[in-house]
Amino acid sequence: MRIRPSRWRPVNALGAAYLLVIGLTIAVGLVFATTWVNTDNSVLVILIGVAGMVGLGLVNQNLPLPRVIPLVLAGLAVLLVAPMSAAWLWSSVLERRGVEVTATVIEIRDGSGKGRQLRYSLLGPDGNWIPGELTWWPGAVSGASGNPEGEVGDQVRVVVDPKGLVHPRLPEELAAQTGVGPATVGGFLVIAGLCMLAGRPRPGDPARWTRPGDPARWTRPGDPARRTGPEDPAGRTAGSGT
Q1: What is the model's pTM?
Q2: Are 155 and 122 contacting, i.e. CB atoms less than 8 angstroms apart?
Q3: What digits encode the pLDDT tens for the residues 130-147?
């Protein structure tokens, strides 16, 4: 009987494992879009990245170059998709149930990192503290020097989550997130494709059955030679052809 050659499939178990680890890493990163942690807690960000890399290493400890390149590209894509995912989370929450109010600055702190990264604690119009921190001030431009800064007692219009899940944001910040959802989905699909490319079977991989349900014959990918295997249902030795 003729041995059927192994065929590459777009979805494979190893690629799915890579995608699972990256997906969990992004999911943990979404916590930074909520009020559960400080937005400038860089130590946790580093731990998340290290956990993701360790997870990938545990999936396959001996990574050949054809697998390394797609994984490196997937890692670079994660650097873009992770913040977009966080922005998609908080913008979706605020668009669905956010309320625009005039808040008062009651405390200012300088977050960790290079340069001034001011964080504003706010008091709502009802006299209650607004969960989270405002990380941007009206009129500020990313990367510019001499940006305007608020002072304790200043008032500012913000969109807040009544349930306190996400940080307050400026109305212009929320408006700037138009289209972040489709971009995030597209980026994740690119990552998924790279993971499947990295996990595709290659010559020299451990031997495997060619197809579930076929007679018990197996080969190594790219190796046409027949190998000895267990007996098929008819009682013949796999690879014997008799």
Answers
A1: 0.69
A2: no
A3: 999 998 899 887 766 778
